[in-house]
Design goal:
Elements (H helix, E strand, L loop, with lengths): L1 H26 L3 E9 L2 E3 L2 E4 L3 E10 L2 E10 L11 E15 L2 E11 L7 E13 L2 E10 L5 E15 L2 E12 L10 E14 L4 E12 L12 E10 L1
Length: 243
């Protein structure tokens, strides 16, 4: 009963944040985006948290380089009875700041991880650099440090390309590599943790409404750093509204 009350509170919080985000967009001229992804699995840094269907709503508010994001994972499948279907297993709160040192874009931020269904929450800080050597191609590196439960680092190196195939239709492809410290890895050793290959598309139905879809493949470099996982292929689609 206590868990259900916690989830109800979190669901209410997301609704309130959506309302506040809308008010902020009108009053403070902030950019606001709200939406939901529906995915075939929940995979984070190569680790399978659910090998079945999930819904992942989010609200993002940004103004003058400062951003605030609320993201949640609701498990639709119960992952062999290890999760409670229809309830939030994770809610992340992210505060960020981005600026440009032409030609390099810089971002710094703080992430609070909350686990309503049990398990200790934790906190990370991060800093990232990205460059666009030519139109459509972006290369970046972001370093994270968990200073609470894990007390170790994780680094993500990424390369992405986006191409406008037709009016309102954009196709993309990406590749990323994760490097984890001893305590941040899912295994016993530190080192190259996982790689991720992905393709995606986005179609703007209107100036404010967009639908997206993606397909991704992930695997480990070394089983001592990231043991075999239940999910390698996964994908999903989403719908987002900006105001």
């Amino acid at each position: 009963m206590q868990k259900k009350r916690k989830v109800s509170v979190l669901t209410g919080l997301l609704v309130v944040l959506c309302a506040v985000a809308g008010l902020s967009g009108r009053v403070l001229a902030a950019d606001v985006t709200a939406g939901t992804d529906f995915a075939s699995a929940y995979v984070w840094r190569g680790i399978t948290f659910n090998d079945g269907f999930v819904a992942q709503p989010s609200v993002d508010v940004s103004s003058g380089g400062v951003g605030f994001n609320v993201w949640g994972n609701m498990d639709i499948d119960d992952y062999d009875d290890t999760l409670n279907s229809g309830e939030f297993s994770e809610v992340d709160l992210t505060l960020s700041y981005g600026f440009s040192l032409d030609p390099v874009d810089v971002s710094v931020g703080y992430i609070e991880y909350l686990f309503p269904e049990g398990g200790s929450g934790t906190r990370e800080v991060y800093a990232g650099l990205s460059v666009e050597p030519f139109s459509g191609l972006t290369a970046g590196v972001t370093g994270y440090y968990d200073f609470d439960e894990v007390e170790d680092y994780y680094v993500n190196v990424s390369l992405g390309y986006a191409y406008e195939l037709a009016k309102d239709l954009t196709l993309g492809a990406g590749a990323a590599v994760g490097i984890a410290g001893d305590d941040a890895s899912a295994g016993e050793d530190s080192g190259f943790h996982e790689y991720l290959l992905s393709v995606d598309c986005a179609y703007a139905l209107t100036d404010a409404l967009e639908v997206t879809a993606y397909l991704a493949y992930t695997d480990h470099f070394d089983k001592d750093v990231l043991p075999d996982q239940d999910t390698d292929w996964f994908g999903g689609m989403g719908i987002y509204y900006s105001f």
